[in-house]
Amino acid sequence: MTRLTTVLAGACATALVAVMTVVLGSPAVAATLVEVTAFGSNPGNMRMHVYVPDSHPSSPAIVVAMHGCGGSGPGFHQSSEFASLADRYGFIVIYPTATQSAGFGNCFDTWSDAAKRRGGGSDPVSLLSMIDHVERTYQGDPDRVYATGSSSGGMMTQHMLAVHPDVFKAGASFMGVPFDCFAGASDYPPGSSRCTGGSMDRTPQQWGDAVRQVYPEFSGTRPRMQLWHGTSDTLVPYSLLRESTDQWTDVFGLSQTPTGTDTPQANWNRSRYADRSGTVQVEAYSIQGAGHALPQGGMALYAIQFFGLTTSQNDTTPPTTPGTPVASGVTATSATLTWTASTDQGGSGLAGYTVYREQGTTDPQLGQSTTTSITLTGLSAGTQYQVYVRARDGAGNLSGSSAPVTFTTTSTGGDTTPPTAPAGLTASGTTATGTSLTWTASTDDTGVTGYDILRAPGASGGTFTQAGTSATTSFTDTGLTANTTYRYQVRARDAAGNVSPVSGTVQITTQGGTTGGCSATAAVQSQWGNGYVIQPLTVTNTGTATITSWTVTFTLPAGHTLTGSWNGTVTTSGRTVTVKSVGHNGTLAPGASTTSFGFQASRPGGDTALPSGYTCA
């Protein structure tokens, strides 16, 4: 069904493998690819091809799709699915052809000083000219411009979103590298490059600062980023996916711990990083067992979905009407609403719900939610609210209005009496990672609405912080550390927001578990006459309890020297190397593994020995 085509080849001092990209077959398209020869300023001496589908809206979105080194715009048009998706969803595709070399042929310039400055020249200026041409000639939407690409094109995707965040709304980088990974043209060829040679390791803030320093006065919305990489990539190391993720999560001010993970298809492991509103700003895909051969079948569609371009052009069918909302937890300033979900038949998908107030006001909208519940805050005390819900789909169609619910917030001058303190707090069923708490119900003049569970570390000292809430008189706390002491207290809340005194304290110590079990297995990613790269060094928790850190030791053969490492704290003593986990890869649940650490070493010419004696503790 698919065949492989070489998109990058070259010779370096170290052995290089041919870079391959999957050809998915010529898309069944009605329109034709057209070359544009006079599109504007072109300091990069690039060629431009454009694909305009026969059917598109009056102001279509623009996708810039960029090939790998050694490729071309027409070649990427044939070897990827973006043109067939353009026919389906009505966006225009620009296929640039790069002419820079840096030791290869037809590579996008992500290394020169000119390319790293706004308006500095080289390929970025040529690409902006192409976008401007499509906006002028085809009325392309300047607020819906996206970048994507494979290998060198994936590198350029991250580059353009860093240098020109005011132009692009989102990007999808396949097998790319972080912005400012290459120090200059001499640093570019994979294998001899510090960037792609396996030794690049910066902190998230260092990566983020590199982006922020390009356009320090930028105050707009940063373009969202989707990242793809194969775990067996031997040309652009898989470890660079972690570096790219670090860069873009830091740019958005997000944690490097994902807010969600899933497997949308077999062997596709996706990590998502959302902001406080729930919007996914960064997405990272680890494609298990894949080499330097992306995008594969179906991946372009996921990129276009990430861009938000999969809404049907003809969807005019609204979602069904939501069920009547039910109000609960009403206080003087807040209330929680729940309702039955709507369905959408128009093809664009259910996007969420909007909550409205029926009373005549200048701003009747109270809030929005992507789920079938919402907690309204900032309400006025002692006020009657009549509220209804409408669903919306991806095309902007609104459903009918649900039947309304009426509730009245409590008066601030009313109930000021807190509930009684919960009594009889006990713990049972304590394991290495959790414990179950029960207590006797509190009483209140208007009714208890819930309980706050407080937890403190150790047998004494430490601060009690909220570990969870419960609407009943029991709670199970999970995710605890083995062989560790904790103290618990509980307090009650009523509908007016009054809080009871805390209960008595109960102390528990989690079981020891089998915490000494972890293993380390090394894989050779690439090697040459006088060096090699070990990636990944897989650390697996073989115990029955979660571990929060690990230490791996191994022995280098005589004459070998460690020249670089990533995602671990490394110390050497003679030929013994000790690696300690870092923040993002130290915690492993029972049976879980991390493949983020790797290293590069040099050795005497002709020596084929490799490190040995890997142990984990």
From TrEMBL:
One of its GO terms (molecular function) is hydrolase activity, hydrolyzing O-glycosyl compounds. Keywords: Carbohydrate metabolism, Glycosidase, Hydrolase, Polysaccharide degradation, Signal. Residues 321-412, 421-513 form the Fibronectin type-III domain. SMART domains: CBD_II, FN3. Residues 1-30 form the signal peptide. Pfam families: CBM_2, Esterase_PHB, fn3. GO terms for cellular component: extracellular region. GO terms for biological process: polysaccharide catabolic process. Residues 511-617 form the CBM2 domain. Residues 409-431 are annotated as: Disordered. PANTHER family: FERULOYL ESTERASE (PTHR43037:SF5), UNNAMED PRODUCT-RELATED (PTHR43037). This is PHB depolymerase family esterase. It comes from Nonomuraea mesophila. The lineage of its organism: Bacteria, Bacillati, Actinomycetota, Actinomycetes, Streptosporangiales.
